[in-house]
Queue: 3 jobs
Job 1
Amino acid sequence: MTPAIEEAAKLLRGAAHGIAVTGAGASVESGIPDFRSANGIWEKFPPEHYATIDAFHRDPDRVWGMWHELGAMMAGVTPNPGHHALAELESLGRLCAIITQNIDNLHQSAGSRTVIEYHGNARRMRCMACEAVVPLVLPRESAGAPRCERCDGLMKPDVVMFGEYIPVDAMTASEEHALRCDVVLIVGTSATVYPAAGIPGTAKSRGAAIIECNLEKTDFTRSITDVFIEGPCGETLPALVSALKAG
Ligand code: BV8
Ligand code: ZN
């Protein structure tokens, strides 16, 4: 048990309103690559062509080509011990919510109940004309972008692309938690995408303690993090739960 894990366990044990903020690193040990690390998703699918709303309007078939591959990759994945540890922290009353940038539904599959989907969820797709939301059915290899069964409008994965606004309910709920929380557990994010990356800073400005779990140091580590737990979160988070329960 490292001193950092001990210190983090003490902070979480005394938390009145703990929250977690998670990024793609939380799902890497489930088999979903993150975006920016070596061999990450954006090595093969540069965001300017695949992750912006302008790129989607320009060439929806091309963007759906990425979702065809991502969907196949996500089809069989299951939560890893890190997801389960976060769900256990919630059931122990140590976390009130998870604000996730991830779109893979793995927190919910691990049993976490209060999950705020800051960037949407790729299990759904939404019609850009009539707003109908249906399960994301993958287009066949040559099928291109799926059309709406109700109005034949263009369907889009129900995720927030660059240049799109965060869903109002997710933004509002996250803001409330950031202002009320006294401990933030940041897991597996490079702190590069806004406004999500602003959430821990808001909490810090209100006096919250910041715990960060990552393989690498980030801008959070260099500015607001109080306790940095280095290592794969599929290992460090279960260790954190054990330390918390041992106290
Ligand atoms: C918006 C889509 C208003 C779904 C994504 C300031 C304020 C507001 C906006 C901006 C701003 N500055 C710039 C902007 C614009 C832009 C932005 O932030 N650009 C960045 C690049 C500078 N933001 C937006 O456009 C947002 N919308 O602001 O609306 C608006 C409206 C119109 C015009 C202007 C503004 C929308 C942002 C959402 C974009 N959608 N994804 C999907 O494909 O998933 S973002 C994408 O990056 C991912 O979804 C992910 O959510 C996000 C963050 O990435 P991470 O999760 O951190 O993943 P990453 O690979 O980067 O890092 C992984 C980390 O995990 C690493 O540190 C690694 O070391 C670690 N790790 C790896 N393995 C492990 C691990 N850690 C522990 N254990 C492991 N095993
Ligand atoms: Zn429609």
Note: The chain has a mean pLDDT of 95.
Job 2
Amino acid sequence: MKITARANSNIALVKYWGKLDEAKNLPATGSLSLTLDCFTTTTTLIPIEARQDMLVLNGRAAEGKAAERVRNFLDLFRARAEKPIHFEVVSTNNFPTASGLASSASGFAALAMAANQAFGLDYSAEGLSQIARMGSGSAARSIFDGFALMRAARDFNDDVFASQVHAHADLDVKMIVIRCAENEKAISSTKGMLHCANTSPFYKSWVQDHATDLDRALGALKSNDFATLGEISEHSTLKMHATMLASSPGFWYFAPLTIQLMNKVRMLRNEGAQCYFTMDAGPHVKVLCRAREANALAEIFRAEAGVLDVCIASPGPGARLVSEEVR
Ligand code: PMV
């Protein structure tokens, strides 16, 4: 059987940044995200007569770290199913890979969904989320529609997974994704997190403060308090990036355009627009706004010098199977 699954990327409003355990990929901080409708990874698994899996990423045979991560991830399914089958993994993103647009989130969520079927396993959504987390922490959240919550791991044996959060029915959010650069990121999120944990004097307080941000954001989601949700979201991203700046040697994912857009968002807010920025392990700026203001705001961002692309995302669907074909 040839199995195809698709998953969407998600962007965290309250960020996950730090691992309690690297091998198990246990998050040191909880996170709250929004799955987006416009960025997808589509992954097909084709059984092959070979001793190892092969990866074709965006139309090109991939080796090195990317292929190794996929093989290690499929090993989890092979062990569980006790089936020594290998696959050609054909994975395509409809957006730039490894640049802070959460391609690992959609990538591992789609792969988990496809592998569950290909190995004849029967993981629940929570089970899939837990296993997707082993591929990439943020992937655990892309299993679900709309808003998803993943708690921090309490200890080394806590097998964390995400779950869907139902927001207040009147919370009409959009996320404007502003692409600021072409290049793939120089420092992977895993490397960045470990460096912060090892060297940043801000890391401890980042982890300690986190539960309060998460609880307040969840309260805001449920009570349709958009302003509080936006404020916490900006606060969370700025604190996360501050741990990077304070690490030794310090590093940052911001480009000059990132800062320009942060200023723009603050300026627009001073003029009455309801919009809040968030950035991940890359230069792009994502702006949380009300649905009714999204088009007008997107036009303003499109007109900023240097902006490559602007997309208005709505809350998107969770990971799903797309097709099964007998070869
Ligand atoms: O799970 P990873 O390795 O994609 O790390 C995600 C880290 C951030 O995107 C910066 C924050 C988050 O919660 O998505």
Note: The pocket of PMV is lined by residues 12, 15-17, 31, 104-105, 136-138, 189-190, 280-281 (CB under 6 Å).
Job 3
Amino acid sequence: MITIIGAGRVGSAAAMRIACMGIDDVMLIDIAEGVAQGEALDIAHACCSNVKITGSSRFEDMQGSELIINTAGLARKPGMSRLDLMKENKKITEAIGKHIAGFAPNAVVMQVANPVDIMTLFMLRATGFPRERVIGMGSMLDMLRFSYLISKELGGHEELDTMVIGEHGDSMVPLVSYTMVSGKPVKDMLDISKINELVEKTRTAGAEVIALKGSTFHGPSAAVAIMAESIIKDRKKIIPASVFLQGEYGFSGICMGVPVTLGKGGAENIIELELDENERTMLSASAKKIEEGLKND
Ligand code: NAI
């Protein structure tokens, strides 16, 4: 069973996608009485697969879950940065972390509420779980957005491999050197000024959607489901996720997006890619931004 905490826009969209993909049974939990139950019923009526979907306002109902996805928290409003959510979401994340440690001590936890890299660290501390069992979803969404923009620019390519690492925020690092279209480096297909423009658009993609419709949840729900599937089905896909670093890429003591192997054990391996000088400089700036965010705690 997968438990999703927070049955708001991201939580309910993720529940719908996980249910329709038939990944596993879903327990939706929200403190707002009735919301999770209503969403669960609404999703069940879609009859898109035979997984069981249940709603609850009781944290103990997460018992027996293999994966807990935490989407509970305030969301950005137009003009806000992810860091603006820090204070409130810290309290919520820590309280939920304690519930998870008590009711699902063997689960893998996927933190989604923002600022995700910082909240993943708070979740790790609150649960006391080993680092491989607490991951953050952020860079996977950035990767979907970067892939979409490149594909659109090339007229709709499907065979596209890319990677985005770093902070889930304006300082993210889309790795152009690891971006291949049908096996060909993107650098051979688009000129560098166009690639840089797409990198910049990727960085502001979330804010662009929020400015237009107030929130973003379809893209995030897709990223959550891809990661959930790799964990529950033990697919061991290489996916960027925010994990606690202990020297990898030269950083320690923060959670930040890096490629990991996602399986039943969570982030089973951290993959250290070789970066060029420019990518290393950008990643250092990204780590600094997370460290500075933590200082405001
Ligand atoms: P929302 O306001 O629609 O839903 C949040 C839900 O959490 C509400 O239903 C609320 O009742 C519930 N909640 C609040 N405190 C709770 C608690 N202590 N226990 C259980 N439930 C609780 O917000 P939305 O749009 O779903 O966003 C949720 C979070 O996800 C925000 O922090 C947002 O910034 C973040 N987000 C992260 C993304 C990422 O890539 N990591 C992408 C999009 C959103």
Note: DSSP finds nine helices and 14 strands in the chain.
